[in-house]
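User: I'm putting together a small comparison set for a docking exercise, and I want a reference complex before I start. The sequence is below, and the ligand is KG4. Could you produce the 3D structure with the ligand included, as structure tokens?
Assistant: Of course. I'll restate your input first, then give the structure tokens for the complex.
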Amino acid sequence: MQDAPVIILGIESSCDETAAAILRRTSDGETEILSSIIASQDEEHRPFGGVVPEIAARAHMQKIDTIIDQAVDDAGVQYDDLTAIAATSGPGLIGGVIAGLMSAKGLSMALGVPLLAINHLEGHALSPRLAAPCPFPYLLLLVSGGHTQLLSVNGLGDYDRLGSTVDDAAGEAFDKTARVMDLGFPGGPAVEKLAMKGNPDAIKLPRPFRGKDHANFSFAGLKTAVARAFDASDKTPKAKADIAASFQRAVCDVMTERTAKAMELFRDQHPDIDGYRFVIAGGVAANKSIRESLEELCTLRGFTLTAPPMKFCTDNAAMIALAGIEHYIKGDFAPLDIAARPRWPLDKQAAKHRPASGFGKKGPKS
Ligand code: KG4
Ligand code: ZN
């Protein structure tokens, strides 16, 4: 345990949220969130129905200094009080990651404090611990616009990927469904709202990978099936609601079925632990039907569900600062010439093995 309190500034800019937060770890091990500022870029991306990387990078560059200043002000600290600077260094949209990392490097140099290069996925993996004690190990389902992964979070720096999407993320499928039916951006909340008025059994849609002996996901086929169903429909409000409801039901089914498989894998990996815990994070975790389906699954399979508050589920800098504190305590500092990494798998196995998915010319994406 460290003697003096550690005060860390966290910076997040890997997708379409520009965020900064300040966390303090006291000498008795308590962590306090002193501030957490998030500037969304929804307005900038709305006309395009999805995140446009160049627009995201420019928006991060324009906003980041103000957001950091605001985080320092809100925390009631001075720049000189900071012990270290933690920034997301990947994986993510490269222009945005560079914007955040450059600011962190500048501050680290100017203040003469260490730089901590944080994997965005590690931030998500540790995020439930921002809200409440969440002892290792636990099974994490990360479902956002950029990621769909099932991870065994064994301890700090020790993660096993039990499954991931082989094509699109679940959030992308929600956004595409909304785009096809012209429901607006971000698509998830719009699809969820419309789904309430529709019949989930109205349209027959696929459940990719059902019954497969692994815990991977696939959403590309489902996305295409939705587009076809819409083309073939009479495009009335009733038809749209039925498609939204049927799509959401298909995603719920896929999520629960794939997670059930991951629960088996998790139990095999950890046969003797004291209670099984399942955590959901990411923007899609806001979806009530998905949450309810997973709650039911947890009850059936003897897992306790932990769903952190939404402000910690979606992209935020508090989770980056938390990971930063842990790395600071380990003395795991980054050199000032560290590069941003658009691809950076969290689990060590992915670096060595060819995964089932997301494997481009330069290796696994995440
Ligand atoms: O975690 P997040 O805020 O950002 C990243 O993608 O990193 O997740 C955003 C995604 C979007 O694709 C959005 O459509 C989806 O989460 N989403 C939802 C809901 N709210 C947000 N999907 C389904 N139902 C929702 N209520
Ligand atoms: Zn994220």
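The CA atoms of residues 86 and 116 lie 4 Å apart. The chain has twelve helices and twelve strands.
User: Thanks, that's exactly what I needed.
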